[in-house]
Amino acid sequence: MSAASGRPKQARTAGEAEGTPVSTATLHRIDVEYEQPDEATSGSVCSTKHAWARVPPEPTQAERAALKDKIRRLLKEKNAVMVSHYYVHPDLQDLAEETGGLVSDSLEMARFGRDHAAQTLVVSGVRFMGETAKILSPKKTVLMPDLDATCSLDLGCPIDEFSAFCDQHPDRTVVVYANTSAAVKARADWLVTSSCALDIVSALKAEGQKILWAPDRHLGAYIQRETGADMVFWNGACIVHDEFKAVELELLKQDHPAAKVLVHPESPADVVALADAVGSTSAILKAAREMDATEFIVATDNGMMHKLRTLNPGKTFYEAPTAGNSATCKSCAHCPWMAMNGLADVARVLETGANAIQVDPALIPRARQPIDRMLAFTAALRNGQPTAALVPHLGAA
Which of the listed residues 25, 46, 78, 160 has the most CB atoms within 10 Å of its CB? Predict the structure, then answer.
């Protein structure tokens, strides 16, 4: 939600429900600034310069224990399961796994929510993740700790402007990143995540298809460099990854010459060029586990550090710099909207049913098509099956 188009909800306190210790801390509203893409560089630009996010209060140890116990009980009572992204608070990651849920990237979150027997999904992440879960499971209840937890890529790709951009390129197959609204997904031919984008675009190129890519220009440019595909780009960027700076990264490498550099491809090209491994959050975890190194510099949201350190206790991880001589820190390597997810709100929505994701039922069938194509394609790849028949020539959406 942009500052121009919405206001934050009334601030809440942790532990509202009866029997839970109540914190007197208040939620703080912060302004989130990120650079507006230069209109001269592209015919389509991010439309939101300024947005806001809430900062939940950190619960005390007593509050944390009580909230976790309450959430465990409510998950059983409500036939619910937690699905958490790698970038949210460690408490939400640990609790999801402890209770039979999932901590993963957006692709695995989509699969898990669709296939799990639970009739209520609690999605800790940002809004497009909840919408994707609802599109795939329209009969299930999908709850989110905070419905205002959004994404700069989603904010920067409004449906009317994006549809006009698609109309300018009717001969291109429309491929959109998962970090988009349900309406934008409904305008697309294919959905991709960072873990499958290379494979899907490579397959489309092999069939002679030209690509219209949205919304992350850095990820799109990386895929174009790797595949040689004919692509035009929407001009968006992730507020976190866009801030990583090659100059400061090179200086940090000098301080830690044995460290391997792990980079998410939403980062700028000069940062990607310094990487020893480039990939999605799951690929970064795999590289950290398998590479012959004990030190790593990581260029992605620092929410990943919890899982990296938990799974690799004998290794050291450093955050790639977002500030220094060539930059000022805006996100400080953590998504302000991912930070809006907290234990108190998970307990609240489970107890009350508040913050249920709603997607226009008329939109769901069309929005589901590109998601289903992605899931079928990645399932075939995973099982060693041919994928060519899954790549029809569709033209523009």
Answer: 46
